[in-house]
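testing teh design pipeline on a random one, pls ignore if ur not involved
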């Protein structure tokens, strides 16, 4: 009589190996799906951030209006503006704000040699006159979701503050008086090309 037991053992071992192989494939598949999901979520987040930050170029070179990403509360509890580091093209080293500016008063009247600033009308409105020594441009800020980036060597005047206006300024460096040019003639001479 032929002994089948050896063949049966062989078949059982083969089946077990197939099961282990299938299990390994299953685990690999689960990890593959998880990695793909993770990459997909990251890509979607990046697209979302890129879409949120729209940039409108102005006439003054390197000045621009950027969109401040907004989080609208799902329960209607109001909006939130969020400024994370990728929103601003410089490192944040100082934040200050102008408020209670009397009607008819102006602020600014200077340029910065190295510092960059982002201005946001957190409340109310005001106008910013930008001047690069050749061109002038007036920008109205009246929306907390818009920010004006002022490049270096740009003379700025802030005027026509509405009642209750608050101007938030985010600056690339701490306060350094030597970074200011406060005399227009000196500014003009510095930017002559
Ligand atoms: P200034 O920048 O000239 O104000 P604005 O451009 O709004 O008219 O600053 C007014 C004064 O405040 C000036 O004496 C310097 C001082 N100051 C600080 O001490 N720290 C600061 O961060 C800023 C912006 C101004």
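output:
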């Amino acid at each position: 009589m032929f002994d089948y037991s050896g063949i049966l053992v062989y078949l059982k071992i083969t089946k077990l190996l197939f099961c282990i192989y299938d299990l390994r494939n299953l685990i690999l598949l689960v990890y593959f799906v998880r990695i793909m999901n993770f990459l997909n979520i990251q890509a979607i987040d990046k697209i979302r951030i890129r879409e949120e930050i729209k940039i409108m170029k102005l006439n003054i070179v390197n000045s621009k209006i950027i969109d401040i990403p907004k989080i609208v509360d799902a329960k209607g509890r109001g909006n939130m503006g969020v400024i994370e580091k990728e929103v601003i093209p410089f490192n944040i080293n100082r934040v200050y704000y102008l408020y209670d500016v009397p009607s008819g008063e102006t602020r600014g009247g200077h340029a910065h040699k190295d510092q960059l600033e982002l201005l946001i009308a957190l409340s109310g409105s005001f106008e910013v006159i930008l001047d690069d020594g050749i061109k002038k441009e007036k920008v109205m800020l009246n929306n907390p979701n818009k920010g004006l980036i002022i490049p270096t060597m740009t003379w700025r005047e802030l005027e026509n503050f509405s009642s209750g206006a608050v101007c938030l300024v985010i600056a690339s460096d701490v306060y350094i008086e030597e970074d200011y040019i406060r005399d227009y003639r000196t500014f003009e001479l510095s930017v002559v090309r």
